[in-house]
Amino acid sequence: MKLVTAIIRPEKTDLIRDALESYGVQGMTISQASGYGRQRGHTQVYRGAEYTVDLLPKVRLEILVDDNSCDDILDVLISTANTGIAGDGKIWVTQVEEVIRVRTGERGLAAV
């Protein structure tokens, strides 16, 4: 099993969630996040005063997947999240050794 973690633009959340559900993903965790990458935030003008926004709003999406469907889920994420503009986000994959469903005690793929 693998844990796919993606940091994405907030405005893409619903579109990505719908695409993943259409693919067959049954569960995911979505959290609000803030951060910056190469763009290092941006400057804005408010009432004539310029100020810098260092941390941009982002969404963190986490999905547990089996090894066989990982590449397909990555393709769905990449194609849906891509705008071609800096700040589209990052995706990383982590190997998961064990998953346990707390309610039933199921382990492994049965717990996903």
UniProtKB/TrEMBL annotation:
<comment type="similarity">
    <text>Belongs to the P(II) protein family.</text>
</comment>
<comment type="subunit">
    <text>Homotrimer.</text>
</comment>
<keyword id="KW-0805">Transcription regulation</keyword>
<keyword id="KW-0804">Transcription</keyword>
<keyword id="KW-0547">Nucleotide-binding</keyword>
<dbReference type="Pfam" id="PF00543">
    <property type="entry name" value="P-II"/>
</dbReference>
<protein>
    <recommendedName>
        <fullName>Nitrogen regulatory protein P-II</fullName>
    </recommendedName>
</protein>
<dbReference type="GO" id="GO:0006808">
    <property type="term" value="P:regulation of nitrogen utilization"/>
</dbReference>
<dbReference type="InterPro" id="IPR015867">
    <property type="entry name" value="N-reg_PII/ATP_PRibTrfase_C"/>
</dbReference>
<dbReference type="InterPro" id="IPR002332">
    <property type="entry name" value="N-reg_PII_urydylation_site"/>
</dbReference>
<dbReference type="GO" id="GO:0005524">
    <property type="term" value="F:ATP binding"/>
</dbReference>
<dbReference type="InterPro" id="IPR002187">
    <property type="entry name" value="N-reg_PII"/>
</dbReference>
<dbReference type="InterPro" id="IPR017918">
    <property type="entry name" value="N-reg_PII_CS"/>
</dbReference>
<dbReference type="GO" id="GO:0030234">
    <property type="term" value="F:enzyme regulator activity"/>
</dbReference>
<keyword id="KW-0597">Phosphoprotein</keyword>
<dbReference type="InterPro" id="IPR011322">
    <property type="entry name" value="N-reg_PII-like_a/b"/>
</dbReference>
<dbReference type="GO" id="GO:0005829">
    <property type="term" value="C:cytosol"/>
</dbReference>
<feature type="modified residue" description="O-UMP-tyrosine">
    <location>
        <position position="51"/>
    </location>
</feature>
